[in-house]
Amino acid sequence: MRGRPAPVTSTLLGTSPPVGLVLCIVLVLTVLVPSVSFGVGTPAGTVISNQATVTFTYGSDPTPRTSSSNVVTITVAQVASVNLAPATARELTGLNSVVNYPFTLVNSGNGTDRFSLSWGSSHGLAAIVYVDSDGDQILSPAEIAAGPVTGSPNMVADASLNFVLRVAVPDSMALAGQTDELFLTCTSLFDPSVRAVISRTTTVTAASLGLEVSVSNTTPSAGDRVMYSILYSNAGNAAATAMRFVDVLDPRVRYVTGSASPAPDSVSGQMLRWSNMSVPAWASGYIMFQVEILNNAAPTEIHNSVAGQYMDGQNARTVMSSEQNFMTVQSSGVVTVEFRRDTMASCEPGDTLQYGFLITNNGALPEAFDLSFSSTRGLAWALYADPTGSGRVTPGSQPIANTGDLPGGAQYYVVAAAVVPLVSADQTVDFTTFRAQSTINTANFETVNGSTTIGIPKMSLLKQASVPDPLPGREITYTITYVNRGHGGAYDFAIADPIPANTAYVPGSVTLNGTARTDEDDADEITVSDGILSVNLGTILPNGTGVIEFRVRIL
């Protein structure tokens, strides 16, 4: 007879088989998993269960026996994730218009979530987001009537929702030719640290027509013929069409028939008309014609101005001309004024401007001339005698308002000086007219113009965060980009960035323009102390830019 084997105890099964030899034990592991895949894995709330099953025989009985372990369950936690598409888009549009940018929001997390939408425009353009309910990327009246939104409803995992971002461009010529950058941020309400950002670039096209009238001889005598020139120039990036110009001449001059190029469409008395003209973007042209000064014209100024109309896309606009110069019918004495140096300058607030010019009495008789000025930006000019003709103020000299008597043919050097004031807009332009006028004959005068462009800094600061896996213990990389897009320097430029709550700064992680910097308050530009990253960069010149980068660890 066979001997009986000793009893075998199974802690896994919690049972002891009776007499018999255990012939085989087979473990089968069953795991319940979902059959669908999601953006960041198994859906939140999914219960993962497993249980071990054993099959065996024993003794001389060939009948299989089974037994099972306890069931182990795990519930999957929620992880937030969101995607926006497309990441970028670019459009051209005119003034007084709207641009529609469609985009799609996908809840790529593993659970139900809601998302807020926020945005900001570099040129302050107004924007509204609508739900694109039919997904055709076109806003229907019904979708507009449903009203704007600033977020999404609850969205299950892998759900998507279509939107249209509508950007409005106002009828402001200050935007002509400008490019606006709008950044739209989508933030998870389940986990506000989870965000997606897209950009939309809108370039504004517009026609910007300017008119300038000049005359070939600024000091004619009665009976002379002079040539008028009308310069029309389009400083915009779109064509100006359907242009019409009207010039009503001074009654002391008479249009010389047939002298105009191009010929006017009509001449009625002192009124000349041109119509149906156009000029492309960044282009210019001239209208030229002659006038004759009446023989009985008294010594005086004769000015000319032109009124214009044109179409900027669908927008009708008007324009009035400026004068480059004008005529002064001469008396017995003639004064001329000419700049000895540039009539234009670019500067910053606080700079001292000095314009030098020369007065010549071209008349036969001695005359004294009063000196004055008119500034469009309120520059407080002071005028000084310049005995050496250096074009610079002599130290210790006092301001003057009169040249004193100048014999016929005599010359007198003058310097105009002013300290540039603070302005609110970059590339602010001041036009100053300097005037020398005879004290014995008010009709005997001359003017010259000075153009001063004032540059100030236009600083922009963009902060971005990069974190592939925003979980506790992982690191976030922050990038701060600064740019001076203005035409003036930014001085004592400093940045302060508090370390966010629930994070810890990673020591030694800060760089400036890719070069490592220390955390201590030492000779370099960056200090990390008391939870604040401080950056002192001194002067940022026009077009100056840089990148600061550092890391924090999520607690």
Task: Explain the overall architecture.
Helices cover about 0% and strands about 50% of the residues. Residues about 1-40 have low confidence and may be disordered. It is mainly β. It has 5 domains: about 1-75, no CATH class; about 80-205, Immunoglobulins (Immunoglobulin-like); about 210-330, Sandwich (Immunoglobulin-like); about 335-455, Immunoglobulin-like; about 460-555, Immunoglobulin-like, CATH 2.60.40.740. A hairpin with a 2-residue loop joins strand 40 and strand 41. The protein contains 1 helix and 42 strands.
Main features:
555 residues, mainly beta, Immunoglobulin-like, 5 domains, five-stranded mixed beta sheet, 1 helix, 52% strand, disordered N terminus
- From the 3D structure, determine the CATH topology of the largest domain: Immunoglobulin-like
Shape designation: elongated
Structural class: mainly beta
Largest sheet: 6 strands, antiparallel
Task: Specify the CATH homologous superfamily of the largest domain.
Answer: Immunoglobulins
What would the average pLDDT be, to the nearest integer? 87
Q: How far apart are the first and last residues' alpha carbons, in Å?
A: 71 Å
